[in-house]
Design goal:
Distance between the termini: 60 Å
Radius of gyration: 26 Å
Largest sheet: 2 strands, antiparallel
Order of helices and strands: EEHEEEE
Strand order of the largest sheet: 1-2
Shape: elongated
């Protein structure tokens, strides 16, 4: 199913840009979005805690698929020399 801009409550504006010699299309809202609808749309932008797993070599918490910062191992192989 393809929704046209008019079905979404939007207005399609086509302009000719003389400097770049191209057609430029922009979509403009037909009606003003209320503060409540705007805030509902923005409500889902949240920070999430990073995923942490235990290092298989030293047991320190680390991000998955990364070299351990404590011991320098990745998949039970020494990748980076760590200075204590």
């Amino acid at each position: 199913v393809i929704l046209l801009p008019a079905q979404l409550g939007l207005r399609l504006v086509i302009e000719y840009d003389q400097r770049k010699e191209v057609l430029r299309m922009s979509i403009c809202p037909k009606n003003k979005s209320s503060k409540g609808h705007r805030d509902q749309r923005r409500a889902n932008w949240k920070m999430s805690a990073p995923t942490l797993v235990k290092c298989s070599h030293c047991g320190a918490l680390m991000q998955p698929h990364q070299v351990c910062k404590a011991c320098g191992y990745y998949e039970n192989k020494s990748v980076v020399a760590v200075n204590d």
